[in-house]
Amino acid sequence: MASIQYLRPAVRRALQVKTCATCGAASSPRAFSVFNRPPPNYEGHVPLTRIERASLAVGSGVMSLINPYRHDLIAALGEATATPYFIYRLRDAMLADPTGRRILRDRPRISSKTLSMERLRALPSGTVGRAYVDWLDREGVTPDTRSTVRYIDDAECAYVMQRYRECHDFFHAVTGLPVVKEGEVALKAFEFANTLLPMTGLSMLAVTTMKKQERARFWSIYLPWAIRNGLRSKEVINVYWEEQLERNVDDLRKELGIEQPPDLRDMRARERAERRKLAKQNT
Fold it and tell me: What is the annotated signal peptide range for this record (predicted)?
Protein backbone atom coordinates (compact mmCIF):
# COMPACT_ATOMS: atom_id res chain seq x y z
CA MET A 1 0.00 0.00 0.00
CA ALA A 2 2.99 2.35 0.41
CA SER A 3 3.24 2.94 -3.33
CA ILE A 4 -0.38 4.09 -3.54
CA GLN A 5 0.55 7.51 -2.20
CA TYR A 6 2.31 8.34 -5.50
CA LEU A 7 -0.81 7.75 -7.63
CA ARG A 8 -3.33 10.40 -8.61
CA PRO A 9 -5.91 11.03 -5.82
CA ALA A 10 -8.90 9.51 -7.69
CA VAL A 11 -6.96 6.35 -8.56
CA ARG A 12 -5.57 6.12 -5.04
CA ARG A 13 -9.06 6.35 -3.53
CA ALA A 14 -10.41 3.71 -5.89
CA LEU A 15 -7.60 1.32 -4.95
CA GLN A 16 -8.16 1.96 -1.28
CA VAL A 17 -11.88 1.19 -1.62
CA LYS A 18 -11.03 -2.01 -3.52
CA THR A 19 -8.76 -2.97 -0.66
CA CYS A 20 -11.63 -2.26 1.73
CA ALA A 21 -13.86 -4.66 -0.16
CA THR A 22 -11.33 -7.49 0.12
CA CYS A 23 -10.07 -7.10 3.65
CA GLY A 24 -12.55 -4.66 5.26
CA ALA A 25 -9.72 -2.80 6.93
CA ALA A 26 -10.04 0.69 5.50
CA SER A 27 -13.84 0.96 5.73
CA SER A 28 -14.09 -0.35 9.28
CA PRO A 29 -13.39 2.19 12.03
CA ARG A 30 -10.73 1.38 14.57
CA ALA A 31 -12.11 -0.24 17.68
CA PHE A 32 -12.62 2.28 20.47
CA SER A 33 -14.92 2.93 23.40
CA VAL A 34 -17.03 5.84 24.61
CA PHE A 35 -14.23 6.55 27.10
CA ASN A 36 -11.51 6.52 24.44
CA ARG A 37 -13.08 8.27 21.47
CA PRO A 38 -10.74 9.21 18.57
CA PRO A 39 -10.51 12.80 17.31
CA PRO A 40 -12.98 13.85 14.58
CA ASN A 41 -11.95 13.38 10.95
CA TYR A 42 -13.59 16.64 9.82
CA GLU A 43 -15.45 19.59 11.31
CA GLY A 44 -18.62 18.41 13.04
CA HIS A 45 -17.72 14.69 12.83
CA VAL A 46 -18.87 12.52 15.74
CA PRO A 47 -17.10 9.11 15.81
CA LEU A 48 -19.46 6.34 16.96
CA THR A 49 -18.84 2.86 18.31
CA ARG A 50 -20.62 -0.01 16.56
CA ILE A 51 -23.11 -0.22 19.43
CA GLU A 52 -23.79 3.52 19.26
CA ARG A 53 -24.26 3.34 15.47
CA ALA A 54 -26.69 0.43 15.79
CA SER A 55 -28.62 2.22 18.54
CA LEU A 56 -28.78 5.38 16.44
CA ALA A 57 -30.10 3.41 13.46
CA VAL A 58 -32.81 1.66 15.48
CA GLY A 59 -33.86 4.72 17.47
CA SER A 60 -33.97 7.14 14.56
CA GLY A 61 -35.68 4.54 12.39
CA VAL A 62 -38.52 3.96 14.85
CA MET A 63 -39.02 7.65 15.61
CA SER A 64 -38.91 8.74 11.96
CA LEU A 65 -41.56 6.13 11.17
CA ILE A 66 -43.76 7.66 13.86
CA ASN A 67 -43.04 11.19 12.62
CA PRO A 68 -41.83 11.14 8.98
CA TYR A 69 -41.50 14.94 8.99
CA ARG A 70 -38.58 14.83 11.47
CA HIS A 71 -35.83 15.41 8.91
CA ASP A 72 -33.13 15.31 11.58
CA LEU A 73 -34.12 11.74 12.48
CA ILE A 74 -34.24 10.70 8.83
CA ALA A 75 -30.78 12.25 8.36
CA ALA A 76 -29.40 10.32 11.35
CA LEU A 77 -30.95 7.10 10.04
CA GLY A 78 -29.35 7.71 6.65
CA GLU A 79 -25.88 8.14 8.11
CA ALA A 80 -26.14 5.25 10.57
CA THR A 81 -27.18 2.78 7.87
CA ALA A 82 -24.99 4.02 4.99
CA THR A 83 -21.76 2.47 6.29
CA PRO A 84 -19.74 0.39 5.85
CA TYR A 85 -20.81 -0.49 2.29
CA PHE A 86 -23.52 1.65 0.73
CA ILE A 87 -21.96 5.11 0.92
CA TYR A 88 -18.73 3.68 -0.53
CA ARG A 89 -20.74 2.23 -3.43
CA LEU A 90 -22.24 5.65 -4.10
CA ARG A 91 -18.81 7.30 -3.86
CA ASP A 92 -17.46 4.71 -6.33
CA ALA A 93 -20.27 5.59 -8.73
CA MET A 94 -19.07 9.20 -8.61
CA LEU A 95 -15.44 8.19 -9.12
CA ALA A 96 -16.44 6.16 -12.18
CA ASP A 97 -18.16 9.15 -13.82
CA PRO A 98 -16.30 12.20 -15.22
CA THR A 99 -18.87 14.64 -13.82
CA GLY A 100 -19.00 12.79 -10.52
CA ARG A 101 -15.23 13.10 -10.20
CA ARG A 102 -15.46 16.86 -10.84
CA ILE A 103 -18.11 17.17 -8.14
CA LEU A 104 -15.88 15.31 -5.69
CA ARG A 105 -12.97 17.55 -6.61
CA ASP A 106 -14.92 20.84 -6.44
CA ARG A 107 -17.17 19.87 -3.50
CA PRO A 108 -19.88 22.45 -4.28
CA ARG A 109 -22.59 23.12 -1.71
CA ILE A 110 -26.25 23.94 -2.37
CA SER A 111 -27.78 26.67 -0.21
CA SER A 112 -29.33 30.12 -0.51
CA LYS A 113 -25.78 31.49 -0.19
CA THR A 114 -24.45 29.59 -3.20
CA LEU A 115 -27.61 29.86 -5.34
CA SER A 116 -29.33 33.21 -5.93
CA MET A 117 -33.07 32.64 -5.58
CA GLU A 118 -33.79 35.94 -7.35
CA ARG A 119 -31.64 34.93 -10.31
CA LEU A 120 -33.43 31.59 -10.52
CA ARG A 121 -36.84 33.30 -10.44
CA ALA A 122 -35.71 35.46 -13.37
CA LEU A 123 -34.89 32.41 -15.53
CA PRO A 124 -37.32 31.48 -18.33
CA SER A 125 -40.13 29.08 -17.54
CA GLY A 126 -39.19 25.51 -18.36
CA THR A 127 -35.56 25.76 -17.26
CA VAL A 128 -34.11 23.57 -14.52
CA GLY A 129 -33.40 26.55 -12.25
CA ARG A 130 -36.88 27.99 -12.67
CA ALA A 131 -38.49 24.59 -12.04
CA TYR A 132 -36.37 24.27 -8.90
CA VAL A 133 -37.18 27.68 -7.43
CA ASP A 134 -40.87 27.41 -8.41
CA TRP A 135 -41.00 24.09 -6.56
CA LEU A 136 -39.33 25.63 -3.49
CA ASP A 137 -41.79 28.56 -3.50
CA ARG A 138 -44.83 26.31 -4.03
CA GLU A 139 -43.85 23.96 -1.21
CA GLY A 140 -42.68 26.71 1.14
CA VAL A 141 -39.19 25.28 1.70
CA THR A 142 -35.64 26.57 1.27
CA PRO A 143 -32.34 24.91 0.33
CA ASP A 144 -31.03 25.66 3.83
CA THR A 145 -32.98 22.98 5.70
CA ARG A 146 -30.61 20.03 5.15
CA SER A 147 -28.78 18.73 8.22
CA THR A 148 -24.99 18.61 8.24
CA VAL A 149 -23.46 15.13 8.06
CA ARG A 150 -21.91 14.07 11.38
CA TYR A 151 -21.79 10.30 11.73
CA ILE A 152 -19.94 9.09 8.62
CA ASP A 153 -16.26 8.54 9.41
CA ASP A 154 -14.66 9.03 5.98
CA ALA A 155 -14.54 12.75 5.09
CA GLU A 156 -15.02 12.19 1.36
CA CYS A 157 -17.96 9.84 1.92
CA ALA A 158 -19.42 12.39 4.34
CA TYR A 159 -19.39 14.89 1.48
CA VAL A 160 -21.11 12.37 -0.81
CA MET A 161 -23.93 12.01 1.73
CA GLN A 162 -24.11 15.80 2.13
CA ARG A 163 -24.30 16.21 -1.65
CA TYR A 164 -27.08 13.64 -1.93
CA ARG A 165 -28.97 15.39 0.86
CA GLU A 166 -28.65 18.85 -0.66
CA CYS A 167 -29.68 17.60 -4.13
CA HIS A 168 -32.89 16.07 -2.78
CA ASP A 169 -34.96 19.15 -3.62
CA PHE A 170 -33.71 19.06 -7.21
CA PHE A 171 -35.04 15.49 -7.41
CA HIS A 172 -38.38 16.82 -6.18
CA ALA A 173 -38.34 19.61 -8.76
CA VAL A 174 -37.48 17.36 -11.70
CA THR A 175 -40.11 14.76 -10.79
CA GLY A 176 -42.70 17.28 -9.59
CA LEU A 177 -43.43 15.28 -6.43
CA PRO A 178 -44.64 17.51 -3.55
CA VAL A 179 -43.61 17.58 0.10
CA VAL A 180 -46.48 15.50 1.41
CA LYS A 181 -46.12 12.02 2.83
CA GLU A 182 -47.13 10.38 -0.45
CA GLY A 183 -44.68 12.48 -2.45
CA GLU A 184 -41.81 11.90 -0.05
CA VAL A 185 -42.33 8.14 0.06
CA ALA A 186 -42.59 7.96 -3.74
CA LEU A 187 -39.37 9.95 -4.13
CA LYS A 188 -37.61 7.81 -1.52
CA ALA A 189 -38.61 4.72 -3.52
CA PHE A 190 -37.08 6.31 -6.63
CA GLU A 191 -33.91 7.20 -4.71
CA PHE A 192 -33.62 3.68 -3.31
CA ALA A 193 -33.77 2.16 -6.79
CA ASN A 194 -31.18 4.68 -7.99
CA THR A 195 -28.76 4.98 -5.05
CA LEU A 196 -29.36 1.81 -2.95
CA LEU A 197 -28.98 3.85 0.25
CA PRO A 198 -30.77 1.79 2.95
CA MET A 199 -32.45 4.81 4.52
CA THR A 200 -34.36 5.51 1.31
CA GLY A 201 -35.68 1.95 1.32
CA LEU A 202 -36.51 1.98 5.02
CA SER A 203 -38.41 5.26 4.57
CA MET A 204 -40.90 3.42 2.38
CA LEU A 205 -42.23 1.77 5.55
CA ALA A 206 -44.07 5.04 6.08
CA VAL A 207 -46.58 3.74 3.53
CA THR A 208 -48.10 1.77 6.43
CA THR A 209 -49.14 5.07 8.05
CA MET A 210 -50.99 6.32 4.97
CA LYS A 211 -54.73 6.31 4.47
CA LYS A 212 -56.23 3.42 2.53
CA GLN A 213 -56.70 5.44 -0.66
CA GLU A 214 -53.16 6.81 -0.47
CA ARG A 215 -51.69 3.34 -0.02
CA ALA A 216 -53.63 2.03 -2.99
CA ARG A 217 -52.34 4.91 -5.11
CA PHE A 218 -48.76 4.30 -4.00
CA TRP A 219 -48.81 0.59 -4.80
CA SER A 220 -50.59 0.97 -8.13
CA ILE A 221 -49.02 4.18 -9.50
CA TYR A 222 -46.03 5.59 -7.66
CA LEU A 223 -44.08 2.50 -6.60
CA PRO A 224 -44.04 1.07 -10.16
CA TRP A 225 -43.01 4.50 -11.46
CA ALA A 226 -40.24 4.79 -8.84
CA ILE A 227 -38.74 1.36 -9.50
CA ARG A 228 -38.90 1.72 -13.28
CA ASN A 229 -37.36 5.18 -13.37
CA GLY A 230 -34.89 4.71 -10.54
CA LEU A 231 -33.38 1.61 -12.14
CA ARG A 232 -33.19 2.86 -15.69
CA SER A 233 -32.11 6.47 -15.10
CA LYS A 234 -28.53 7.60 -14.78
CA GLU A 235 -27.03 7.97 -11.30
CA VAL A 236 -28.61 11.24 -10.17
CA ILE A 237 -25.73 11.83 -7.74
CA ASN A 238 -23.58 12.61 -10.79
CA VAL A 239 -25.66 15.57 -11.99
CA TYR A 240 -23.81 18.87 -11.54
CA TRP A 241 -27.02 20.76 -10.87
CA GLU A 242 -25.31 24.12 -10.61
CA GLU A 243 -24.28 23.79 -14.27
CA GLN A 244 -27.76 22.74 -15.45
CA LEU A 245 -29.80 25.67 -14.15
CA GLU A 246 -30.37 27.36 -17.53
CA ARG A 247 -31.03 24.12 -19.37
CA ASN A 248 -34.49 23.00 -20.48
CA VAL A 249 -35.84 20.73 -17.75
CA ASP A 250 -37.53 18.39 -20.23
CA ASP A 251 -34.23 17.88 -22.05
CA LEU A 252 -32.52 17.02 -18.77
CA ARG A 253 -35.26 14.55 -17.85
CA LYS A 254 -34.86 12.90 -21.24
CA GLU A 255 -31.07 12.70 -20.85
CA LEU A 256 -31.35 11.19 -17.38
CA GLY A 257 -34.10 8.79 -18.40
CA ILE A 258 -36.70 10.13 -15.95
CA GLU A 259 -40.36 10.43 -16.82
CA GLN A 260 -42.60 12.60 -14.68
CA PRO A 261 -45.15 10.70 -12.61
CA PRO A 262 -48.83 11.72 -12.57
CA ASP A 263 -49.30 15.08 -10.82
CA LEU A 264 -49.92 14.08 -7.20
CA ARG A 265 -51.12 17.51 -6.06
CA ASP A 266 -53.63 17.68 -8.89
CA MET A 267 -54.83 14.16 -8.13
CA ARG A 268 -55.30 14.92 -4.45
CA ALA A 269 -57.10 18.20 -5.27
CA ARG A 270 -59.56 16.39 -7.56
CA GLU A 271 -60.25 13.82 -4.86
CA ARG A 272 -60.91 16.54 -2.26
CA ALA A 273 -63.26 18.31 -4.66
CA GLU A 274 -65.11 15.05 -5.31
CA ARG A 275 -65.47 14.40 -1.57
CA ARG A 276 -66.85 17.91 -1.00
CA LYS A 277 -69.30 17.43 -3.87
CA LEU A 278 -70.52 14.13 -2.42
CA ALA A 279 -70.79 15.68 1.06
CA LYS A 280 -73.02 18.47 -0.31
CA GLN A 281 -75.22 15.96 -2.10
CA ASN A 282 -75.71 13.98 1.11
CA THR A 283 -76.73 17.01 3.18
Answer: none
